Amino acid sequence: MINIVLFGKPGAGKGTQAEFLKGKYNLTHLSTGDIFRFNIKNNTPLGLEAKTYIDRGDLVPDSLTINMLEDEVEKNPHSDGFLFDGFPRTLAQAGALDLFLASKNQKITATIALEADDEILVQRLLERGKTSGRIDDQDEEKIRNRYQEYNEKTAPLMDYYKEQNKFYAVNGIGTIAEITERLSNVIENL
């Protein structure tokens, strides 16, 4: 079983790359963003609560996110592994994920960060916002707030996973195929 955490700032290409990786390595893709959007669209209690945070460009609290991810893992007991996209985002979430996976006799195999310059990512999100309908991709101030949140809360995960020799950085600029190849090289050499 292989469990990969794919992370990077909003707009870095996590969702796009996850689509390729899940098929290539037969992984169950767990995107917190997709799960939140589904719940928001369907006006579930979790969705309504998550929406208040997302609309401000803030991270959804750990307790909501952790419970949601545990439920999704439980729904896929026969998976060959998981590709966590957008989770964990904080040290508390990383610790909770480690404990949960340990209770299933599993662990994180690797974390891979897609790295790209903020200015390039802002432009990507503003372009995506023109067609996606996502409010958080249409306002540059909200986008930059998301990056500040990332720098304060998510970037410390790099050190957490480096200490475990599970952190890999990949250049997130280039064609989709080039980035997929870079990610595949990391995974195939684990």
Automatic annotation (TrEMBL):
InterPro entries: Adenylat/UMP-CMP_kin (IPR000850), Adenylat_kinase_CS (IPR033690), P-loop_NTPase (IPR027417). The gene is adk. HAMAP family: Adenylate_kinase_Adk. Keywords: ATP-binding, Cytoplasm, Kinase, Nucleotide biosynthesis, Nucleotide-binding, Transferase. Pfam families: ADK. GO terms for biological process: AMP salvage. It catalyses: AMP + ATP = 2 ADP. This is Adenylate kinase. AMP binds at T32, R37, D58, L59, V60, G86, F87, P88, R89, Q93, R134, R146. Consists of three domains, a large central CORE domain and two small peripheral domains, NMPbind and LID, which undergo movements during catalysis. The LID domain closes over the site of phosphoryl transfer upon ATP binding. Assembling and dissambling the active center during each catalytic cycle provides an effective means to prevent ATP hydrolysis. It is found in: Cytoplasm. Gene3D superfamilies: P-loop containing nucleotide triphosphate hydrolases. One of its GO terms (cellular component) is cytoplasm. Signal peptide: none annotated. Belongs to the adenylate kinase family. Its EC number is 2.7.4.3. Monomer.
